[in-house]
Design goal:
Elements: H1 3-17, H2 19-29, H3 46-59, H4 63-81, H5 83-86, H6 92-97, H7 99-110, E1 118-123, E2 129-135, H8 141-155, E3 159-165, E4 173-180
Antiparallel strand pairs: 1-2, 2-4, 3-4
Length: 181
Amino acid sequence: MKGIVFNSFVSFIEENYGLDFLNYLEEKTGPESEFAYTTIGNYSSSEIVNCLIVMSEESGRSVNDITINFGQYLFQSLAKAHNKFIEKYDNAIPCLYALENEIHKQVRKMYQNTSLPSFDVHLNDEGDELSMLYLSKRPMADLAEGLIAGCIEHYGNSCKVVREDKEPFNGTHALFTITNI
């Protein structure tokens, strides 16, 4: 995963749990990077997963819930860093629809050797319902759900999001249906 995600994760922890907790996480999980990331560097997603497990144990919140919250936070960070992609759209559904063919395409140009999840997207004829099949080698469907929620929040839309996990049911495959309400 790219360093921009990890830097956002560190900021998420600092803002929501405090610097002392971040130091505690570093001590408890012993990340190889020592929480020092460059934006374009590649890092193991296991560092985030290990932190999420400890955060869950310490807070009593589920790993899923924390990951979804981080996804919401991450969308805002990415929107600030890459606002030229985001400002082209006036609501969440067109932005999400463009994710694979426009936004991920540009990300791959900017960050070579990146391994992004893929989305098979379909928009209904009315343009008010989008289905997104998330496929990844990493078990980050919760993060994708949070990013979708963050996108909806960013544009101020009212949408219903339904998630259906797909085989192998380990967070690497999920179908999201987003409907304007």
